[in-house]
Amino acid sequence: MIQDYAKFDRVVAPVIIASPELRMIYANPYAVRVFPFLSAPAALISRFESADLEQGIRMLKQGEICILPYEESLHLSILLEPVLLDGELIYVCVYVVSDSEDPNTIFPFLADGELLKFLRDEVANPTNIILSQLKIMESIILRGDTERSLAALKMIRTRMLRMSLFYARMEDCSGKHSNNCEVFDAAHVLLEFEHNHKFIKYKPSQTCYVPLERSSQVLLYTDVLTSLIFRQDKPSVTITSSCDSNGVTIEFISGPLNKPIDVPCDDEYDGIDLGMFSVRRRAELAGGNVSVKKEARGGVTVTLKFPPVHWLLSNYYLSDPEGEKSTPVECHAHEYLMLMTEGNC
Question: Which is it for strands 289-294 and 247-254: parallel, antiparallel or unpaired?
């Protein structure tokens, strides 16, 4: 009978169950959504050294709890609690534990009121404005003013692109991959950004496989870039990427900002600006993390880090960069960036 419940004080994870060999055998829907990599069958086996796992299993078989480091930068660890029957280990309860004083600072999920505000600002209000603009555009066309008609059409299209990208983000935030994931070369995706947008400087040095499909990567990088270009008088972003045994690191280095990165851009022409929350949320769903560092010259460096891909131990499948056509979401994201920086580069 458990006497001391204090070990669960800082548990932030949902229900995950592992076998005596520490292979994941069950994860409830919330676990799959919040910790998709941890809930994969070989998550623990692929993440930790054999010696650490063997020692942990010995402790569990003796009825002792075991704590393993999970993500030091986020102050997270894994608590393994054994369940024994007649002295035999039958399964293990897996919990993610926050060493932070306030776990909400690590998992800042949107409250209903905040979500409704985004839906109002990014869907309801733009829809009403578009309807009004279409009415105005009709009268302009009837007067035969082609130039003003094209200007009105551009405004309408920009607003509709914003709405389309907002809907696409919602899907990416829901953890749509169930214990398997497409892997795509981030360098290939970033090279397309450099090719399509003059304000970006990027020279790839190697392939960098990230456990996010191409369209999800495009949306993620677009959000980082828009957060930077909206805060620059003359947009300029340098991107670097690298890959080693610790995973993939991508850095976005901006020119001088005219507004701090943590101050929202509220102007209706700035586009969607959810700050780093949306970026961090989607990066975490892929097992990665995000950090922002202020530079002395007034700019910032936004760093995305993704875990290494263990091809033999994980349910990944590799997509061929040359064999895929751009999706409508990718085309819309690039067009949106072009419209936002038109005349400013």
Answer: unpaired
10 Å CB burial of residue 35 (0-12, 13-18, 19+) is buried
Helix (H) / strand (E) containing 69: strand 66-71
pLDDT in tens, 181-235: 678 899 999 999 999 999 999 998 889 998 888 888 999 999 899 888 888 888 8
- The span from the CA of 239 to the CA of 204, in Å, is 9
Angle at 98 (CA atoms; ends 94, 103), nearest 5 degrees: 125
Q: Report how far residue 275's alpha carbon sits from residue 266's, in angstroms, rounded to the nearest whole number.
A: 11
This prediction's pTM: 0.59
3-state SS assignment for residue 295: coil
The answer to whether 165 touches 219, Cβ cutoff 8 Å, is: yes
- Residue 336 neighbours by CB under 8 Å, 6+ apart: 158, 161, 162, 165, 222, 271
- In angstroms, the CA 69 to CA 90 distance is 23
Joined tokens for residue 181: 């994931």
Amino acid present at 203: K
Question: pLDDT tens across 146-157, in order?
Answer: 888 888 888 888
Distance of CA 58 to the CA centre of its chain: 36
Q: Which residues pair with 89 in a beta bridge?
A: 84
